[in-house]
Design a protein that fits this description.
The chain is an all-alpha fold. The chain has twelve helices and two strands, in the order ααααααααβαααβα. It has helices spanning 2-5, 12-25, 28-58, 61-75, 78-94, 99-126, 134-172, 176-205, 219-241, 245-249, 253-285, 307-316, and strands spanning 209-210, 292-293. A two-stranded antiparallel ribbon has the order 1-2. Helix 3 packs antiparallel against helix 4. The radius of gyration is 21 Å and the shape is globular. The model is unreliable at 291-303 and 313-317 (pLDDT under 50).
Length: 317
């Protein structure tokens, strides 16, 4: 996809300038706060859905839950992780027997709220109105929720059993120590692969675009992953050395930290969408578009856009 990775023919400086201007006009900081709120509403139903599916299909739910929380704890701040771990343990223990299926479906519906909010933010980045019927848009959100959950379950299965299976085969070939070293090295690239795959699903099916092509890795997905990793690491360092939310806010400190992490995560997703949208628009202007918008195309605004045009565009939005 040359029109994607050559930044639509833009120089790096012009690309960065357009991305900043468009992200500012799309108010991604405000939209990230909106996403953080919906993520907070969705995170526990999503985790409950994943744990319930694992419990119904894989048997030893406790082992998988511990593995899920362990990997989640590597990305989340410690205080937020403790909050999520406690709530998930309490809720998941109540979802047993015949009530598990009902709880799973209810959790799937509730968790999809977060993806509905993401779809709205992606549409804003691409400058399109949502033209899909509400039920179709909700089905897309539910489908993305289920797909991301399936990726999580698959990743946990690989992490739990992949090393054991690989070592068993390597021992027969006399390569047990070599495989153990390689597995420790490949552990994190696998995590990044599943994150990139989830971002590819979101950027492909989230916005209301017609004829969008599948791409495993786009500049926007790479940018979103980089921003997410850096911001999450920065937040953990800040909290470990400077932040003491527990002393100021008491038991609410963990909730505030979790919201802050969700805010940074939503900001990373929207930045990636803005990057892809600017590149796609530049490619369309050069005569080689990758996608076609269903609705009316919103012009991408640049520094040369006149004041009356800016006012007219702002009023139209």
């Amino acid at each position: 996809m040359p029109s994607t990775w050559d930044f639509g023919g833009l120089s790096f400086g012009e690309f960065g300038k357009r991305t900043y201007e468009q992200a500012t006009r799309d108010d991604i900081l405000g939209r990230s706060a909106q996403l953080a709120y919906y993520f907070l509403l969705s995170i526990f139903p999503l985790l409950l859905f994943i744990v319930t599916v694992i419990g119904l299909m894989a048997g030893p739910e406790g082992t998988f839950r511990q593995e899920l929380l362990k990997h989640l704890g590597t990305a989340m701040p410690e205080e937020a992780y403790s909050l999520v771990e406690g709530v998930l343990t309490q809720v998941s223990e109540g979802a047993r027997g015949g009530a598990a299926v009902i709880s799973m479906l209810a959790a799937l519906w509730t968790a999809s709220v977060g993806f509905v909010a993401v779809m709205s933010g992606l549409n804003a980045a691409y400058g399109v109105e949502e033209t899909r019927p509400w039920w179709k848009a909700r089905l897309v959100a539910i489908g993305m929720t289920a797909a991301v959950s399936a990726l999580v379950v698959l990743a946990l299965g690989i992490f739990l059993f992949g090393g054991w299976i690989g070592r068993a085969g390597a021992d027969r070939l006399g390569l047990g120590e070599v495989f153990s070293t390689l597995w420790n090295v490949l552990h994190w690239p696998l995590v990044l692969f599943f994150v990139l795959l989830a971002l590819a699903l979101v950027y492909r099916f989230g916005p209301d675009l017609e004829g969008a092509k599948w791409a495993w890795i786009t500049p926007g997905a790479a940018a979103a992953l980089a921003v997410w990793l850096l911001s999450s690491a920065g937040l953990r360092i800040y909290l470990a050395n400077f932040g003491n939310y527990g002393a100021v806010y008491g038991s609410l400190g963990a909730v505030i930290i979790l919201l802050l992490w969700f805010y940074l995560s939503g900001l990373a997703i929207l930045i990636g969408a803005e990057v892809n949208a600017v590149i796609e628009d530049a490619a369309a202007r050069s005569g080689k578009p990758d996608v076609h918008r269903r609705g009316e195309r919103r012009p991408q605004l640049t520094s040369e856009t006149s004041a009356p045009e800016l006012k007219e565009e702002h009023q139209r939005r």
